[in-house]
Amino acid sequence: MTFRKYLVLAGITVFSTLGDSLLARGMKQLGGISLHDVSGLLLAILNPWVTVGILLLLAFFASYMSALSWADLTYVLPATSLGYVLVALIAKLGFHEEISPTRWVGIALIAAGVGFVAAGPSLTPARHSSDRMAAVPLEEEAKL
User: Fold this and answer.
1) Mean pLDDT over residues 52-66, rounded?
2) Which residues are CB-contacts of 73 (< 8 A; sequence separation ≥ 6)?
3) Terminal alpha carbon distance of the chain
4) CB crowding 106-129: b at 16 or more within 10 Å, else e
5) What pLDDT, on the 0 to 100 scale, is given for residue 32?
6) Do 16 and 53 contact (CB within 8 A), yes or no?
7) Which of 41, 52, 60, 75 has a beta carbon 3.0–4.6 Å from 15's, enabling a disulfide?
8) What burial class does residue 92 get, using C-beta atoms within 10 Å of its C-beta: 0-12 exposed, 13-18 middle, 19+ buried?
């Protein structure tokens, strides 16, 4: 895997972690909002924390789409789940949330799983060859 692809995976992790954290901060500032209150939801976007959080989550989705174009979902999702560890740390240190020992164990298991997934291939050979075979008729059809 190239350095650029590692950057995309890192971008997914950082953008989702920061986006979720800033969105949470902004929404806690605003208080309870109901899905039935559309005007309240729209006004929430004007909160700077919410706005920046949404922009970071848009960057996350763009990076995520890019990663899914060259790697399997079963590789991308676990490889970027390190964000769960970072969110827990931000919640504990930045928002002073209480995190139970059971959650810490779960977060540790996620972090260990990242190591197992990262050691494997990003694209399964069977999928790669079947995608090429599926693309051939489309290319031939375009020539007609």
Assistant:
1) 96
2) none
3) 36
4) ebeebeeebeebeeeebeeeeeee
5) 85
6) no
7) 60
8) middle
Per the structure block, which two tokens stand in for 75?
Answer: 């590789």
Task: Spell out the domain ranges in the chain.
Answer: 3-143
Spell out where the chain has E strands: none
**pLDDT score for 117:** 73
Using N-to-C axis directions, what is the helix angle for 101-119 and 82-93, rounded to 10°?
A: 150
CA distance 1 to 68: 14
Give the H/E segment covering residue 137: helix 125-143
Q: Helix or strand or coil: residue 94?
A: coil
Q: Which tokens in the block code for residue 27?
A: 């929404």
Residue 36's alpha-carbon distances to 41, 50, 117, 118, 143, in angstroms, are: 9, 19, 41, 42, 52
Query: Per-residue pLDDT tens for 3-36?
Result: 888 899 999 999 999 999 999 999 999 888 888 8
- Host H or E run for residue 16: helix 3-30
Handedness of CA 132, 134, 136, 139 (dihedral sign): negative
